[in-house]
Q: What sequence folds into this?
């Protein structure tokens, strides 16, 4: 298909598609003349990914490029690549230095019996979240940590069981499954609260 | 205690405490002279709440005031007050008009057997999240919706069981439990993914 049909297929302006081509986020088509190229389903798929990263997740072109490089070249150590890809997603968290920079997250992960790797961005994220709850006078209790941790491990197991085996697809699945499904999880939690409150109030649902 | 001791107790500059007093976010102390007032534990508690809403959640003074008014005056219909308080939290989502403005969220909540109330802000939030996943070519499958929905209802039941009976405290618990625990949930989900990936890779944790 031509670039106009490609743009139509994804619902983006042709100018945006050309911009992504120039920025190297979208692979070139096959040249069919000096001024035209032909695109296929692989371009449609890639454009959807680029649009998701920039449009929905809100990444800059540079941040999107860093993630796309990991999708394109996952390397031999998929586990570490997945960690770096997720670490490149928002929220941006400041890494801390020092002997024990993440004491709350370290204790929480020990209590849950989970891997603690201070290089992993979500550790700093958990530390900030636990500190904010604590300073508001509503620290996460041990009981709540166990309950949340247990349910979220079940959710993670569900996600991992469905991760594609092919490495490029696995990175894409992990990045989008993290960035795009988090807002679903958060909205569903709020709606579950509402539903639960309605039931306790005696409203039939 | 004097204002300086109050500020110390919470770790805020005296100027910030005075600003919150002027803005009416913090109730006045008991005047002990023409220029001095005395503050107690209720002020410490309130300051922690104000700081959480403005500092951690990132609300404006005006947005924080709207929530504090619901904490201070929960009214007779607690269920509706809780809905309005949570609806005043980020993310800001545009309400849509029309016959069926939230088709994805409506279908998802019907599939889960949960309350569907288009006035509730999280419905618009869920609609956007589902639409973004769909347009990236990774729609939430029925199977995933059921799995996530089931686990998040269990999480919500845990939260509701611990909600204080006293209405002012219930609004405060709901607002902070939503805004401050969401980042904990999101970070724990990412860390559960990492832990699950490590287990599958054969790394002892």
A:
């Amino acid at each position: 298909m031509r670039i106009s049909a490609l743009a139509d297929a994804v619902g983006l302006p042709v100018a945006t598609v050309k911009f992504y081509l120039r920025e190297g986020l979208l692979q070139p088509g096959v040249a069919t003349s000096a001024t035209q190229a032909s695109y296929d389903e692989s371009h449609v798929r890639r454009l959807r990914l680029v649009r998701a990263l920039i449009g929905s997740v809100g990444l800059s072109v540079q941040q999107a490029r860093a993630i796309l490089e990991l999708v394109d070249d996952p390397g031999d150590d998929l586990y570490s690549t997945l960690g770096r890809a997720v670490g490149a997603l928002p929220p941006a968290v400041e890494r801390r230095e020092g002997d024990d920079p993440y004491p709350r997250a370290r204790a929480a992960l020990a209590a849950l019996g989970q891997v603690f790797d201070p290089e992993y961005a979500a550790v700093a994220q958990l530390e900030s979240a636990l500190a904010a709850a604590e300073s508001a006078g509503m620290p996460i209790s041990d009981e709540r940590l166990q309950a949340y941790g247990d349910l979220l491990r079940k959710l993670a197991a569900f996600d991992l069981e469905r991760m594609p085996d092919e490495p490029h697809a696995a990175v894409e699945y992990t990045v989008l499954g993290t960035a795009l499904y988090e807002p679903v999880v958060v909205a569903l939690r709020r709606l579950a609260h509402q539903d639960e409150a309605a039931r306790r109030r005696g409203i039939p649902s």
